[in-house]
Design brief:
two-stranded antiparallel ribbon; alpha/beta; 25% strand; homodimer; 9 strands
């Protein structure tokens, strides 16, 4: 998140050479938060419960700070299905492990089903930014959000595995047929909570590997690092365009 | 985790005044791991998905390192139900949000139910350590493990809340009647994965507040810090006893 805020500061020409961009949440080791101009960059840990805690607290913060017209974008990494590693996926719908676009929230022991729709105009604007950048492939597609990285994503290399390579392939191919382009672990609750709060939201994740071809990362550290910068570059371009448009109209 | 390994090093008289106890997982910012003598201390992030990833990788590590007779104990904090804040709970059974002792793992889109039993002898040994220490109250009871900190634990102070104070109280009282002493977010998958792997496991969490009386921490930072040390002190005492018994028999 610090790398992103440094990148954004440079892009927006808001760099302060003396600034070290302090972690605003330094009092806790649970999250880190950085700010430059109107941009806030927050870490969220791994998985639905971790990002949900952060979002509850961030949404309260935005409310008390009286922030208006907030756009919130999750950036991160994911496993791709049938895509060249390094492809960036802008999420159309976040789907569960049965490919349904829903998030099940347990409240007082009862399951409540929430919608995981994201802002389609925002997704299209992000895709447009990628076209203008012309640096890497970007697609719009469904993102499967799972509670588990190993068994939950049909990996064969966890501590336990009760299925075969064929079972794995069959499952991932079914996912692809349902429009799933990538798999990660936070988009469903992110989409659901942003929708409930009326926040304009998007999910932009780079794929680090093609899960149809394996479970482990085969690219070099250098290549993986360059892949991880792609969502930052794409979202950086979008933020810059938004702020320039705002400057013109205001 | 570093504080714990420093504490254990002192307890076991294995301190190296020059040692800084390096983070063995320094290559990633996802987890931190420290080691002194036969004791490994690992962070796990927040929530079931985060601890599950760590456990898959730790279980593989223990297997390849040919570790034998491993005991694994989760230490942490929790919300208590009807207990004086600062009470330590050693988990008897980890139960879900409907108070059932089970963990639902989704594999290839299908739900598999796993057992969350913990080692009852180990729990009794830990309780015995607390009696010998005689520094704070410790009880054995059920621990409710939820996927969400706010709505999932009937808190009234999240970004969303669709229920009343009375609904919350009714739910927490039902939980208490089902033997639930405390609520946290990792014990179910921890219990299930340890049981599947044949690892002797326990969960030891201090309660930071009584959820029947409120949702926010009311104790001072100083008091909360002292509460957070209690699971460390209890598990430190247990480790010391185990190693002394081993030294006598070997």
């Amino acid at each position: 998140m610090k790398a992103f805020i440094e990148y954004i500061a440079a892009e927006l020409e808001m760099e302060d050479p003396k600034s070290e961009y302090p972690n605003i949440c330094a009092g806790t080791d649970r999250y880190a938060m950085y700010k430059v101009g109107p941009v806030l960059s927050v870490s969220h840990g791994m998985g639905i419960p971790s990002i949900a805690i952060m979002l509850h607290e961030l949404i309260k913060l935005l409310y008390h700070a009286q922030c208006k017209d907030v756009t919130i974008i999750r950036i991160g990494t994911s496993g791709g299905i049938g895509l060249e590693p390094g492809t960036v996926v802008v999420t159309k719908q976040s789907v569960d492990a049965t490919f349904q676009p829903k998030f099940e929230q347990v409240i007082l022991g009862k399951t409540v089903v929430r919608n995981t729709d994201l802002d389609q105009n925002l997704a299209e604007e992000l895709l447009q930014c990628s076209k203008e950048l012309d640096q890497f492939e970007t697609v719009i597609g469904n993102t499967m959000c799972t509670l588990d990285f190993y068994e939950g994503q049909a990996r064969l290399d966890g501590a336990f595995c009760s299925y075969s390579e064929k079972d794995k392939q069959d499952y991932l191919i079914k996912a692809r047929e349902a429009g799933v382009c990538n798999i990660e672990m936070e988009s469903s609750v992110f989409s659901a909570m942003c929708k409930l709060s009326g926040l304009r939201a998007a999910v932009v994740c780079v794929t680090l590997l093609d899960r149809l071809k394996g479970d482990q990362l085969m690219s070099s550290h250098e290549v993986l690092n360059s892949f991880q910068k792609r969502p930052q570059i794409l979202v950086g371009c979008f933020i810059k365009k938004q702020l320039m448009a705002k400057a013109v109209t205001s």
